[in-house]
Amino acid sequence: MTALLEVKGLHAAYGETKVLHGLDFAVQQGGVTALLGANGAGKTTTLRALCGMVGTQGEINLGGKRIEAMATEDIIRLGVAHVPDGRGTFMELTVEENMRLGAYTRPAREATADFEKMFGYFPRLKERYRQQAGTLSGGEQQMLAISRALLLRPRLLLLDEPSFGLAPLIVREIFDIMRRIRDEEGVSILLVEQNASLALAFAEDAYLLETGRIVISGKASDISKDEGIRRSYLGY
Amino acid sequence: MEGFIHQIISGIATGGIYASVALALVMIYQATHHVNFAQGEMATFSTYIALTLINFGLPYWVAFVGSFAISFVVGVIIERLLMRPVANAPVLTSVGVFVGLLLIVNSVTGWFFDYTIKQFPSPFPDKSLFGGFVSGHELGSTAVTLVVLLSVYLFFRHTRLGLAMRAAAFNPVSSRLVGVRVGWMLALGWGLAAAIGSVAGCMVAPVVFLDPNMMSGILLYAFAGALLGGIDSPLGAVLGGFMVGVIENLGGAYVVGTELKLTLALVIIISVLTLKPSGLMGRKVYSRV
Predict the structure, then answer these.
(1) A-chain residues within 8 Å CB-CB of B164?
(2) N or C: at which end does chain B have fewer Cβ atoms within 10 angstroms?
(3) Structural domains of chain B ordered from first start
(4) pLDDT digits (tens, 9 = 90+) for B117-170
Protein backbone atom coordinates (compact mmCIF):
# COMPACT_ATOMS: atom_id res chain seq x y z
CA MET A 1 0.00 0.00 0.00
CA THR A 2 1.19 3.49 -0.79
CA ALA A 3 0.34 6.67 1.02
CA LEU A 4 -1.86 9.20 -0.77
CA LEU A 5 -1.31 11.83 1.88
CA GLU A 6 1.87 12.21 3.88
CA VAL A 7 2.27 14.86 6.54
CA LYS A 8 5.56 15.71 8.23
CA GLY A 9 6.13 18.06 11.14
CA LEU A 10 2.86 19.91 10.73
CA HIS A 11 2.44 22.98 12.92
CA ALA A 12 -0.62 25.20 12.85
CA ALA A 13 -1.67 28.32 14.71
CA TYR A 14 -4.60 30.72 14.94
CA GLY A 15 -2.74 34.02 15.19
CA GLU A 16 -0.59 33.71 18.32
CA THR A 17 -2.23 30.56 19.60
CA LYS A 18 -0.37 27.44 18.50
CA VAL A 19 -2.65 24.46 18.10
CA LEU A 20 -0.62 21.75 16.36
CA HIS A 21 2.93 20.99 17.42
CA GLY A 22 4.54 18.88 14.72
CA LEU A 23 2.26 16.09 13.51
CA ASP A 24 3.48 13.20 11.38
CA PHE A 25 0.85 11.00 9.81
CA ALA A 26 -0.28 9.41 6.57
CA VAL A 27 -3.45 8.35 4.79
CA GLN A 28 -3.12 5.18 2.71
CA GLN A 29 -4.43 4.99 -0.85
CA GLY A 30 -8.01 3.72 -0.74
CA GLY A 31 -7.94 3.39 3.03
CA VAL A 32 -9.77 4.94 5.94
CA THR A 33 -7.70 6.67 8.58
CA ALA A 34 -9.20 7.92 11.80
CA LEU A 35 -8.01 10.91 13.79
CA LEU A 36 -9.24 10.63 17.36
CA GLY A 37 -8.99 12.81 20.41
CA ALA A 38 -10.88 14.88 22.93
CA ASN A 39 -12.36 18.33 22.41
CA GLY A 40 -9.63 20.85 21.68
CA ALA A 41 -7.02 18.25 20.75
CA GLY A 42 -6.59 19.81 17.31
CA LYS A 43 -8.54 17.40 15.09
CA THR A 44 -10.55 20.02 13.23
CA THR A 45 -7.49 22.23 12.95
CA THR A 46 -5.60 19.36 11.34
CA LEU A 47 -8.23 19.07 8.61
CA ARG A 48 -8.24 22.84 8.15
CA ALA A 49 -4.47 22.85 7.88
CA LEU A 50 -4.61 20.24 5.12
CA CYS A 51 -6.90 22.55 3.12
CA GLY A 52 -4.87 25.69 3.64
CA MET A 53 -7.52 27.27 5.87
CA VAL A 54 -5.09 28.10 8.73
CA GLY A 55 -1.49 29.22 8.81
CA THR A 56 0.83 26.20 8.86
CA GLN A 57 4.43 25.11 8.89
CA GLY A 58 5.70 21.71 7.85
CA GLU A 59 5.28 19.47 4.87
CA ILE A 60 2.04 18.22 3.32
CA ASN A 61 2.40 15.80 0.44
CA LEU A 62 -0.58 14.80 -1.67
CA GLY A 63 0.22 12.06 -4.17
CA GLY A 64 3.80 13.32 -4.46
CA LYS A 65 2.85 17.00 -4.71
CA ARG A 66 3.62 19.55 -2.01
CA ILE A 67 0.42 21.44 -1.18
CA GLU A 68 1.15 23.27 2.09
CA ALA A 69 1.66 26.65 0.40
CA MET A 70 -1.32 26.42 -1.93
CA ALA A 71 -4.62 28.31 -1.67
CA THR A 72 -7.71 26.39 -0.53
CA GLU A 73 -9.33 26.64 -3.98
CA ASP A 74 -6.28 25.07 -5.62
CA ILE A 75 -5.94 22.27 -3.09
CA ILE A 76 -9.61 21.42 -3.69
CA ARG A 77 -8.93 21.23 -7.42
CA LEU A 78 -6.30 18.56 -6.77
CA GLY A 79 -9.08 16.34 -5.48
CA VAL A 80 -9.35 17.05 -1.78
CA ALA A 81 -12.93 17.30 -0.54
CA HIS A 82 -13.66 18.57 2.94
CA VAL A 83 -16.89 18.00 4.86
CA PRO A 84 -16.31 20.71 7.42
CA ASP A 85 -17.12 21.11 11.04
CA GLY A 86 -20.75 22.29 11.16
CA ARG A 87 -21.38 20.79 7.69
CA GLY A 88 -20.91 24.02 5.74
CA THR A 89 -24.38 23.96 4.21
CA PHE A 90 -25.33 26.86 1.94
CA MET A 91 -28.49 27.51 3.97
CA GLU A 92 -30.00 30.13 1.64
CA LEU A 93 -29.65 27.93 -1.45
CA THR A 94 -31.65 24.89 -2.48
CA VAL A 95 -30.47 21.31 -2.20
CA GLU A 96 -30.02 21.28 -5.97
CA GLU A 97 -27.87 24.42 -5.89
CA ASN A 98 -25.79 22.98 -3.05
CA MET A 99 -25.14 19.90 -5.16
CA ARG A 100 -24.32 21.96 -8.25
CA LEU A 101 -21.77 23.85 -6.19
CA GLY A 102 -20.24 20.55 -5.12
CA ALA A 103 -19.62 19.79 -8.79
CA TYR A 104 -18.51 23.37 -9.52
CA THR A 105 -15.01 22.39 -10.64
CA ARG A 106 -16.26 19.76 -13.12
CA PRO A 107 -18.06 19.93 -16.48
CA ALA A 108 -21.81 20.32 -15.86
CA ARG A 109 -22.93 17.36 -17.96
CA GLU A 110 -20.63 14.91 -16.20
CA ALA A 111 -21.86 16.11 -12.83
CA THR A 112 -25.54 15.68 -13.60
CA ALA A 113 -24.95 11.96 -14.15
CA ASP A 114 -23.34 11.81 -10.70
CA PHE A 115 -26.43 13.36 -9.11
CA GLU A 116 -28.27 10.07 -9.70
CA LYS A 117 -25.52 8.23 -7.90
CA MET A 118 -25.87 10.53 -4.92
CA PHE A 119 -29.64 9.90 -4.86
CA GLY A 120 -28.75 6.20 -4.79
CA TYR A 121 -26.76 6.72 -1.60
CA PHE A 122 -29.12 9.27 -0.11
CA PRO A 123 -32.68 8.93 -1.51
CA ARG A 124 -33.80 11.59 0.98
CA LEU A 125 -31.93 14.25 -1.02
CA LYS A 126 -34.01 13.49 -4.07
CA GLU A 127 -37.20 14.15 -2.13
CA ARG A 128 -35.75 17.42 -0.84
CA TYR A 129 -34.17 18.42 -4.16
CA ARG A 130 -36.01 21.73 -4.66
CA GLN A 131 -36.14 22.64 -0.99
CA GLN A 132 -34.08 25.31 0.70
CA ALA A 133 -31.14 23.57 2.37
CA GLY A 134 -31.61 25.53 5.59
CA THR A 135 -34.88 23.68 6.17
CA LEU A 136 -33.23 20.23 6.17
CA SER A 137 -32.74 18.26 9.38
CA GLY A 138 -29.24 17.80 10.77
CA GLY A 139 -28.95 14.30 9.32
CA GLU A 140 -30.12 15.45 5.91
CA GLN A 141 -27.65 18.31 5.97
CA GLN A 142 -24.88 15.84 6.75
CA MET A 143 -25.98 13.72 3.78
CA LEU A 144 -25.97 16.83 1.63
CA ALA A 145 -22.51 17.78 2.86
CA ILE A 146 -21.14 14.33 2.01
CA SER A 147 -22.78 14.46 -1.44
CA ARG A 148 -21.39 17.92 -2.07
CA ALA A 149 -17.94 16.63 -1.23
CA LEU A 150 -18.28 13.48 -3.36
CA LEU A 151 -19.52 15.45 -6.38
CA LEU A 152 -16.04 16.92 -6.56
CA ARG A 153 -14.84 13.37 -7.43
CA PRO A 154 -12.20 13.58 -4.72
CA ARG A 155 -9.15 11.40 -4.22
CA LEU A 156 -9.11 12.31 -0.56
CA LEU A 157 -12.21 12.90 1.53
CA LEU A 158 -11.82 14.76 4.82
CA LEU A 159 -14.74 14.15 7.17
CA ASP A 160 -15.10 16.29 10.27
CA GLU A 161 -17.31 14.62 12.88
CA PRO A 162 -20.05 13.27 10.65
CA SER A 163 -21.83 11.96 13.75
CA PHE A 164 -21.98 15.33 15.50
CA GLY A 165 -25.41 16.17 16.92
CA LEU A 166 -27.21 13.33 15.17
CA ALA A 167 -29.46 10.61 16.55
CA PRO A 168 -27.72 7.19 16.87
CA LEU A 169 -29.97 5.68 14.22
CA ILE A 170 -29.03 8.35 11.66
CA VAL A 171 -25.37 8.01 12.56
CA ARG A 172 -25.51 4.29 11.82
CA GLU A 173 -27.25 4.94 8.52
CA ILE A 174 -24.61 7.46 7.50
CA PHE A 175 -21.71 5.18 8.45
CA ASP A 176 -23.28 2.27 6.56
CA ILE A 177 -23.47 4.42 3.46
CA MET A 178 -19.92 5.63 3.95
CA ARG A 179 -18.73 2.02 3.86
CA ARG A 180 -20.48 1.67 0.50
CA ILE A 181 -18.94 4.91 -0.68
CA ARG A 182 -15.46 3.78 0.30
CA ASP A 183 -15.92 0.52 -1.62
CA GLU A 184 -17.60 1.98 -4.70
CA GLU A 185 -15.83 5.32 -5.15
CA GLY A 186 -12.29 4.22 -4.36
CA VAL A 187 -11.77 7.37 -2.32
CA SER A 188 -9.34 7.59 0.58
CA ILE A 189 -10.88 8.93 3.77
CA LEU A 190 -9.46 10.86 6.71
CA LEU A 191 -12.09 10.75 9.43
CA VAL A 192 -12.15 12.96 12.50
CA GLU A 193 -14.42 11.63 15.22
CA GLN A 194 -15.09 12.01 18.91
CA ASN A 195 -17.03 8.78 18.88
CA ALA A 196 -13.97 6.54 19.00
CA SER A 197 -15.62 3.13 18.87
CA LEU A 198 -17.56 4.13 15.77
CA ALA A 199 -14.45 5.47 14.06
CA LEU A 200 -12.22 2.52 14.97
CA ALA A 201 -14.76 0.08 13.57
CA PHE A 202 -14.70 1.92 10.24
CA ALA A 203 -10.99 2.78 9.89
CA GLU A 204 -7.91 0.65 9.22
CA ASP A 205 -5.40 3.07 10.70
CA ALA A 206 -5.81 5.45 13.58
CA TYR A 207 -3.98 8.29 15.25
CA LEU A 208 -4.73 9.63 18.67
CA LEU A 209 -4.28 13.36 19.18
CA GLU A 210 -3.73 15.06 22.51
CA THR A 211 -3.28 18.85 22.79
CA GLY A 212 -1.81 19.14 19.33
CA ARG A 213 0.48 16.11 19.39
CA ILE A 214 0.05 12.54 18.19
CA VAL A 215 0.38 10.32 21.23
CA ILE A 216 -0.59 6.94 19.77
CA SER A 217 -0.72 5.58 16.26
CA GLY A 218 -1.33 2.16 14.80
CA LYS A 219 -3.84 -0.24 13.31
CA ALA A 220 -7.38 0.64 14.29
CA SER A 221 -8.06 -2.95 15.30
CA ASP A 222 -5.05 -3.02 17.65
CA ILE A 223 -6.00 0.26 19.26
CA SER A 224 -9.57 -0.79 19.87
CA LYS A 225 -8.33 -4.02 21.50
CA ASP A 226 -5.88 -2.26 23.81
CA GLU A 227 -7.71 -1.88 27.06
CA GLY A 228 -5.23 0.64 28.47
CA ILE A 229 -5.60 3.06 25.59
CA ARG A 230 -9.31 2.60 25.53
CA ARG A 231 -9.75 3.44 29.17
CA SER A 232 -7.31 6.29 29.46
CA TYR A 233 -7.94 8.05 26.15
CA LEU A 234 -11.11 6.88 24.49
CA GLY A 235 -13.34 6.54 27.49
CA TYR A 236 -15.42 3.51 26.62
CA MET B 1 -57.22 62.05 -12.32
CA GLU B 2 -55.20 62.19 -15.51
CA GLY B 3 -52.46 64.08 -13.71
CA PHE B 4 -52.46 61.49 -10.96
CA ILE B 5 -51.98 58.61 -13.42
CA HIS B 6 -49.26 60.56 -15.16
CA GLN B 7 -47.46 61.08 -11.85
CA ILE B 8 -47.60 57.35 -11.13
CA ILE B 9 -46.25 56.46 -14.56
CA SER B 10 -43.34 58.86 -14.40
CA GLY B 11 -42.76 57.67 -10.83
CA ILE B 12 -42.35 54.16 -12.18
CA ALA B 13 -39.92 55.45 -14.80
CA THR B 14 -37.64 57.16 -12.24
CA GLY B 15 -38.27 54.25 -9.88
CA GLY B 16 -36.57 52.02 -12.43
CA ILE B 17 -33.42 54.12 -12.09
CA TYR B 18 -33.57 53.86 -8.29
CA ALA B 19 -34.23 50.13 -8.58
CA SER B 20 -31.08 49.63 -10.67
CA VAL B 21 -28.88 51.60 -8.29
CA ALA B 22 -30.53 49.91 -5.30
CA LEU B 23 -29.76 46.52 -6.85
CA ALA B 24 -26.12 47.55 -7.30
CA LEU B 25 -25.99 48.60 -3.64
CA VAL B 26 -27.52 45.33 -2.48
CA MET B 27 -25.14 43.23 -4.56
CA ILE B 28 -22.15 44.83 -2.87
CA TYR B 29 -23.88 44.75 0.51
CA GLN B 30 -24.55 41.01 0.31
CA ALA B 31 -20.91 40.27 -0.36
CA THR B 32 -19.25 42.78 1.94
CA HIS B 33 -21.93 43.87 4.46
CA HIS B 34 -21.14 47.47 3.62
CA VAL B 35 -23.02 50.04 1.58
CA ASN B 36 -20.93 51.38 -1.27
CA PHE B 37 -21.38 55.14 -0.90
CA ALA B 38 -19.49 55.65 -4.15
CA GLN B 39 -21.98 53.67 -6.24
CA GLY B 40 -23.68 56.84 -7.49
CA GLU B 41 -20.45 58.64 -8.39
CA MET B 42 -19.23 55.53 -10.21
CA ALA B 43 -22.44 55.59 -12.26
CA THR B 44 -21.90 59.27 -13.07
CA PHE B 45 -18.38 58.52 -14.25
CA SER B 46 -19.78 55.71 -16.46
CA THR B 47 -22.28 58.13 -17.96
CA TYR B 48 -19.45 60.51 -18.91
CA ILE B 49 -17.68 57.59 -20.57
CA ALA B 50 -20.82 56.94 -22.61
CA LEU B 51 -21.01 60.62 -23.56
CA THR B 52 -17.34 60.62 -24.58
CA LEU B 53 -17.92 57.58 -26.79
CA ILE B 54 -20.95 59.26 -28.36
CA ASN B 55 -18.88 62.39 -29.00
CA PHE B 56 -16.32 60.18 -30.75
CA GLY B 57 -19.11 59.54 -33.23
CA LEU B 58 -20.16 56.09 -32.10
CA PRO B 59 -23.86 55.18 -32.43
CA TYR B 60 -25.79 55.52 -29.18
CA TRP B 61 -26.22 51.82 -28.44
CA VAL B 62 -22.57 51.03 -29.17
CA ALA B 63 -21.56 53.74 -26.72
CA PHE B 64 -24.11 52.37 -24.24
CA VAL B 65 -22.65 48.86 -24.41
CA GLY B 66 -19.11 50.25 -24.43
CA SER B 67 -19.77 52.21 -21.26
CA PHE B 68 -21.34 49.08 -19.72
CA ALA B 69 -18.19 47.05 -20.48
CA ILE B 70 -15.73 49.73 -19.39
CA SER B 71 -17.67 50.26 -16.14
CA PHE B 72 -17.51 46.54 -15.50
CA VAL B 73 -13.73 46.55 -15.85
CA VAL B 74 -13.39 49.67 -13.69
CA GLY B 75 -15.53 48.02 -11.00
CA VAL B 76 -13.34 44.93 -11.02
CA ILE B 77 -10.19 47.05 -10.80
CA ILE B 78 -11.56 49.10 -7.89
CA GLU B 79 -12.32 45.92 -5.95
CA ARG B 80 -8.91 44.38 -6.64
CA LEU B 81 -6.92 47.54 -5.94
CA LEU B 82 -8.84 49.34 -3.19
CA MET B 83 -11.29 47.01 -1.49
CA ARG B 84 -9.17 43.86 -1.40
CA PRO B 85 -6.56 45.20 1.04
CA VAL B 86 -9.25 46.26 3.52
CA ALA B 87 -11.44 43.16 3.15
CA ASN B 88 -10.85 42.12 6.78
CA ALA B 89 -10.42 45.59 8.22
CA PRO B 90 -12.71 47.04 10.92
CA VAL B 91 -15.98 48.69 9.83
CA LEU B 92 -14.70 52.25 10.20
CA THR B 93 -11.79 51.54 7.86
CA SER B 94 -14.15 50.25 5.19
CA VAL B 95 -16.48 53.20 5.62
CA GLY B 96 -13.47 55.50 5.30
CA VAL B 97 -12.43 53.80 2.08
CA PHE B 98 -15.96 54.08 0.65
CA VAL B 99 -16.18 57.77 1.50
CA GLY B 100 -12.71 58.31 0.06
CA LEU B 101 -13.74 56.48 -3.09
CA LEU B 102 -16.80 58.73 -3.37
CA LEU B 103 -14.69 61.87 -3.16
CA ILE B 104 -12.01 60.56 -5.49
CA VAL B 105 -14.43 59.42 -8.20
CA ASN B 106 -16.38 62.68 -7.91
CA SER B 107 -13.25 64.83 -8.21
CA VAL B 108 -11.72 62.74 -10.98
CA THR B 109 -14.97 63.05 -12.92
CA GLY B 110 -14.99 66.81 -12.52
CA TRP B 111 -11.30 67.12 -13.37
CA PHE B 112 -11.58 64.95 -16.48
CA PHE B 113 -14.87 66.15 -17.87
CA ASP B 114 -15.19 69.59 -16.14
CA TYR B 115 -18.03 70.71 -13.91
CA THR B 116 -20.32 72.33 -16.46
CA ILE B 117 -23.77 70.83 -16.91
CA LYS B 118 -24.02 68.85 -20.13
CA GLN B 119 -26.86 67.51 -22.20
CA PHE B 120 -27.06 63.78 -22.65
CA PRO B 121 -29.00 62.33 -25.58
CA SER B 122 -31.91 59.96 -25.25
CA PRO B 123 -32.11 57.12 -27.77
CA PHE B 124 -35.90 57.21 -27.65
CA PRO B 125 -38.26 59.40 -29.73
CA ASP B 126 -39.10 62.70 -28.12
CA LYS B 127 -42.88 62.55 -28.16
CA SER B 128 -45.76 61.74 -25.92
CA LEU B 129 -47.42 58.37 -26.23
CA PHE B 130 -50.85 57.08 -25.27
CA GLY B 131 -52.49 60.48 -25.26
CA GLY B 132 -49.79 62.26 -23.29
CA PHE B 133 -49.62 59.81 -20.42
CA VAL B 134 -46.05 58.77 -20.98
CA SER B 135 -43.07 60.19 -22.83
CA GLY B 136 -40.99 58.14 -25.24
CA HIS B 137 -38.01 58.35 -22.93
CA GLU B 138 -39.99 57.25 -19.87
CA LEU B 139 -41.32 54.20 -21.65
CA GLY B 140 -38.00 53.34 -23.27
CA SER B 141 -35.89 53.78 -20.15
CA THR B 142 -38.32 51.70 -18.10
CA ALA B 143 -38.09 48.96 -20.72
CA VAL B 144 -34.28 49.06 -20.74
CA THR B 145 -34.20 48.96 -16.96
CA LEU B 146 -36.56 46.00 -16.84
CA VAL B 147 -34.52 44.10 -19.43
CA VAL B 148 -31.34 44.71 -17.43
CA LEU B 149 -32.94 43.68 -14.14
CA LEU B 150 -34.41 40.56 -15.71
CA SER B 151 -31.08 39.60 -17.27
CA VAL B 152 -29.33 40.03 -13.95
CA TYR B 153 -31.97 37.85 -12.31
CA LEU B 154 -31.61 35.12 -14.94
CA PHE B 155 -27.83 35.30 -14.70
CA PHE B 156 -27.87 34.75 -10.94
CA ARG B 157 -30.59 32.07 -11.08
CA HIS B 158 -29.55 29.98 -14.01
CA THR B 159 -25.82 30.16 -14.65
CA ARG B 160 -22.96 28.42 -12.90
CA LEU B 161 -21.08 31.66 -12.47
CA GLY B 162 -24.15 33.36 -11.01
CA LEU B 163 -24.61 30.50 -8.56
CA ALA B 164 -20.95 30.68 -7.56
CA MET B 165 -21.24 34.43 -7.01
CA ARG B 166 -24.26 33.98 -4.78
CA ALA B 167 -22.54 31.18 -2.88
CA ALA B 168 -19.43 33.31 -2.37
CA ALA B 169 -21.55 36.12 -0.94
CA PHE B 170 -23.55 33.87 1.42
CA ASN B 171 -20.83 31.54 2.62
CA PRO B 172 -17.25 32.28 1.54
CA VAL B 173 -15.70 29.48 3.62
CA SER B 174 -17.85 26.72 2.15
CA SER B 175 -17.46 28.25 -1.30
CA ARG B 176 -13.69 27.90 -1.15
CA LEU B 177 -14.19 24.28 -0.10
CA VAL B 178 -16.01 23.50 -3.34
CA GLY B 179 -13.33 25.29 -5.36
CA VAL B 180 -15.02 28.66 -5.97
CA ARG B 181 -12.46 31.47 -6.29
CA VAL B 182 -14.17 33.74 -3.79
CA GLY B 183 -11.91 36.77 -4.29
CA TRP B 184 -12.67 36.87 -8.00
CA MET B 185 -16.39 36.42 -7.40
CA LEU B 186 -16.36 39.56 -5.24
CA ALA B 187 -14.50 41.43 -7.97
CA LEU B 188 -17.04 40.28 -10.57
CA GLY B 189 -19.81 41.44 -8.24
CA TRP B 190 -18.23 44.89 -8.13
CA GLY B 191 -17.90 44.88 -11.89
CA LEU B 192 -21.52 43.92 -12.39
CA ALA B 193 -22.72 46.52 -9.89
CA ALA B 194 -20.72 49.21 -11.67
CA ALA B 195 -22.11 48.10 -15.04
CA ILE B 196 -25.71 48.23 -13.75
CA GLY B 197 -24.90 51.70 -12.45
CA SER B 198 -23.82 52.76 -15.93
CA VAL B 199 -27.24 51.76 -17.31
CA ALA B 200 -28.96 53.77 -14.59
CA GLY B 201 -26.73 56.76 -15.32
CA CYS B 202 -27.38 56.69 -19.07
CA MET B 203 -31.13 56.39 -18.55
CA VAL B 204 -31.42 59.22 -16.03
CA ALA B 205 -28.96 61.69 -17.60
CA PRO B 206 -31.32 62.87 -20.42
CA VAL B 207 -33.86 63.85 -17.72
CA VAL B 208 -31.68 65.48 -15.05
CA PHE B 209 -28.71 66.55 -17.25
CA LEU B 210 -25.18 65.41 -16.69
CA ASP B 211 -22.84 66.93 -14.13
CA PRO B 212 -20.42 65.34 -11.66
CA ASN B 213 -22.99 65.45 -8.84
CA MET B 214 -25.80 64.03 -10.94
CA MET B 215 -26.22 60.83 -8.93
CA SER B 216 -25.79 62.11 -5.37
CA GLY B 217 -29.53 62.68 -4.89
CA ILE B 218 -30.39 59.55 -6.80
CA LEU B 219 -28.12 57.49 -4.55
CA LEU B 220 -30.17 58.66 -1.57
CA TYR B 221 -33.44 57.58 -3.20
CA ALA B 222 -31.84 54.29 -4.21
CA PHE B 223 -30.59 53.75 -0.68
CA ALA B 224 -34.10 54.44 0.62
CA GLY B 225 -35.41 51.90 -1.91
CA ALA B 226 -32.86 49.28 -0.89
CA LEU B 227 -33.71 49.75 2.78
CA LEU B 228 -37.45 49.71 2.14
CA GLY B 229 -37.18 46.44 0.25
CA GLY B 230 -34.61 44.94 2.60
CA ILE B 231 -30.93 45.73 2.24
CA ASP B 232 -30.00 42.07 1.79
CA SER B 233 -32.74 41.17 -0.72
CA PRO B 234 -32.10 41.89 -4.42
CA LEU B 235 -35.76 41.45 -5.33
CA GLY B 236 -36.77 43.63 -2.40
CA ALA B 237 -34.35 46.33 -3.50
CA VAL B 238 -35.84 46.41 -7.00
CA LEU B 239 -39.41 46.61 -5.68
CA GLY B 240 -38.33 49.18 -3.09
CA GLY B 241 -36.71 51.28 -5.81
CA PHE B 242 -39.90 51.38 -7.87
CA MET B 243 -41.97 52.16 -4.77
CA VAL B 244 -39.72 55.03 -3.78
CA GLY B 245 -39.99 56.41 -7.32
CA VAL B 246 -43.77 56.46 -7.12
CA ILE B 247 -43.85 57.77 -3.53
CA GLU B 248 -41.41 60.53 -4.43
CA ASN B 249 -43.42 61.63 -7.45
CA LEU B 250 -46.81 61.57 -5.77
CA GLY B 251 -45.46 63.17 -2.59
CA GLY B 252 -43.73 65.86 -4.63
CA ALA B 253 -46.84 66.62 -6.65
CA TYR B 254 -49.50 66.53 -3.95
CA VAL B 255 -47.95 66.67 -0.49
CA VAL B 256 -44.61 68.37 0.07
CA GLY B 257 -43.94 70.07 -3.26
CA THR B 258 -40.94 69.55 -5.49
CA GLU B 259 -38.46 71.46 -3.33
CA LEU B 260 -38.82 69.05 -0.45
CA LYS B 261 -38.86 65.82 -2.47
CA LEU B 262 -35.46 64.69 -1.25
CA THR B 263 -36.77 64.89 2.30
CA LEU B 264 -39.11 62.03 1.44
CA ALA B 265 -36.10 59.77 0.88
CA LEU B 266 -34.78 60.65 4.32
CA VAL B 267 -38.22 60.14 5.88
CA ILE B 268 -38.39 56.69 4.29
CA ILE B 269 -34.87 55.82 5.47
CA ILE B 270 -35.58 56.86 9.06
CA SER B 271 -39.02 55.22 9.13
CA VAL B 272 -37.71 51.90 7.86
CA LEU B 273 -34.74 51.90 10.21
CA THR B 274 -36.90 52.62 13.25
CA LEU B 275 -40.05 50.66 12.41
CA LYS B 276 -38.89 47.68 10.35
CA PRO B 277 -35.11 47.54 9.99
CA SER B 278 -35.17 44.35 7.92
CA GLY B 279 -37.35 46.03 5.27
CA LEU B 280 -40.21 44.43 3.40
CA MET B 281 -38.36 41.38 2.11
CA GLY B 282 -35.10 41.30 4.02
CA ARG B 283 -34.04 38.68 6.51
CA LYS B 284 -34.26 39.47 10.17
CA VAL B 285 -30.88 39.42 11.82
CA TYR B 286 -30.64 37.92 15.26
CA SER B 287 -27.57 38.00 17.40
CA ARG B 288 -26.76 36.21 20.58
CA VAL B 289 -26.00 38.45 23.52
Answers:
(1) 101, 104
(2) C
(3) 2-275 (1.10.3470)
(4) 999 999 988 877 777 777 888 889 999 999 999 999 999 999 999 999 999 988
Residue B226 has pLDDT above 70, yes or no: yes
Q: How many CB atoms lie within 10 A of CB A116?
A: 9
**Per-residue confidence at B6, pLDDT binned at 50, 70, 90?**
confident
CATH 3.40.50.300 holds for A3-234: yes
Q: How many residues are recorded in chain B?
A: 289
ipTM of the complex: 0.91
> pLDDT under 70 in chain A at which residues?
1, 235-236
Is B177 close to A82, i.e. CB distance below 8 A? yes
Phi, psi of A81 (to 5 degrees): -110, 140
The residue ranking higher by pLDDT, B181 or B281, is B181
CA distances, A62 to each of A7, A23, A208 (Å)? 9, 15, 21
Contact residues, chain A to chain B, C-beta under 8 Å: 51, 53, 72-73, 76-77, 81-82, 84, 88-93, 97, 100-102, 104-105, 108, 148, 152
Give the torsion through C-alpha atoms of A170, A193, A86, A103, to 10 deg: -80
Contacts of B182 in chain A (CB under 8 A): 73
Average pLDDT in chain B: 90
Residue B64: is its pLDDT beyond 90?
Answer: yes
Residue B288: predicted pLDDT: 58
Instruction: Record the pTM.
Output: 0.88
